[in-house]
Amino acid sequence: MLLEHQLVPQAVAKPGSFVGLMALYESNYLRLLQLVPEIERLDGYYRSGVAGDCDLHLEILDRSRYTVTLSLTYFFYEGAQRIADPDMQIRLYLDCNLAEAMSLSGNHRHAGFRRLVREHKKELDARWQRNIVLNKWLEYLSDHGHLILER
């Protein structure tokens, strides 16, 4: 098990710096490995369900020798319409142990995500915003017991 000091991104202390952003990417990678320990071997679609939380959906979108691109989301239903929120595309750089949030949907139904985006809107550019949200969401998922293993 990883200790908290191994997961806390030092980037929070130096917002906007390249070194800080890379530390955040490293923290995202470690958190993803906690959530999906076999990520380098997985392919396809997976779901994690725990009591008291929404089902988490993960899909491997693309894989190459040094990267894995995946989507990570919850699904909400409004009538017959299925809405993904947050809807993130994440790229893992396997050769350097980094994970970057490539995209994040803009209309968040979850109050916690709206708060995170609002708090970081002024001081962070788009990459910082996406990756801070990813980091906090991965922490939340781990705290709630989500785990994605091979089918």
TrEMBL record:
Pfam family, one: DUF1249
InterPro entries assigned: DUF1249 (IPR009659)
Record protein name field: DUF1249 domain-containing protein
Source organism: Woeseia oceani
